[in-house]
Amino acid sequence: MGRTMGAAVMFQTFFIAILLPTTASALILNSTTRSCSKHCESINCQSVHKIRYGKFCGVGYSGCPNQSPCDRLDACCKQHDLCVGRNAANFPNHTCRYNLRSCLQQYLSTGAVVYQGSNCTAMTVQNTVMVALESTTFHEHVAPGSAPQAGGAPNPSSGMLIDRITSIVLICGVWASLLWAHELSPALRSVG
Fold it and tell me: I want to staple 44 with a disulfide (CB 3.0 to 4.6 A). Which of 48, 50, 67, 134 is the partner?
């Protein structure tokens, strides 16, 4: 009996120590605070929450005022940031999302070229930005009322988001533990 109970405790410990932090961190949007960008960057191009492309592409990442985009792809992101900034009271703005999608699709269909010195392909950046766009939609549904930052990019940190994700993960962990205990109960009865 002690061994099967030990297995259940080990499962719970594993869940709380390993799965909870990694699940929450995988869902939380990048919460680092940055000043605006004045330089063209191309880092983490395949990471939805860490991508930094050009001066304007990336969750919580935006160029400084009066900065020119690095290329047409970056220009799509700049227009999206400006749109979100103009419509801060109506966030998320579905028109801004639609316009970004259309701009990115048009960019790719007309012979996408990235700025000289970029470490990323146009297709990789486009795909990552599209997934990030969808994840901000998820973010707004999970943490309604989040507002854009002054630069126009969505506010990536939200205590409500963290609280809700943590609650969901804990509920799943309790449910899994109960299911695990139910599966073990015939074995426990036969031992006792």
Answer: 50
Known catalytic residue: 80? yes
Give the helix/strand (H/E) hosting 43: strand 41-43
Residue type, 47: S
Q: Scan for tokens 């028109």, then name that residue.
A: 95
pLDDT in 10s for each residue of the chain, 192 residues: 555 555 444 444 444 444 434 333 333 333 344 578 899 999 999 998 899 999 999 888 889 989 999 999 999 999 999 998 888 767 667 889 899 999 999 998 888 889 999 999 999 999 999 888 877 665 554 444 444 444 444 444 444 454 455 446 555 555 555 555 555 555 555 555
Instruction: Output Rg (C-alpha) for the chain, integer angstroms.
Output: 22
The SS3 of residue 42 is strand
Separation CA 138–CA 69 (nearest Å): 27
Q: What is the C-alpha separation between 85 and 147, in angstroms, rounded? A: 10
Rounded Cα distance between 142 and 161, Å, is: 6
* Structural domains of the chain, ranges and CATH numbers in brackets: 37-161 (1.20.90.10)
Q: Count other Cβ atoms within 10 Å, centred on residue 156.
A: 22
41 bridge partner residues:
54
pTM of the predicted model, to two decimals? 0.56
Q: Using an 8 Å Cβ cutoff, are 156 and 162 in contact? A: no
- Report phi then psi at 114, rounded to 5: -90, 160
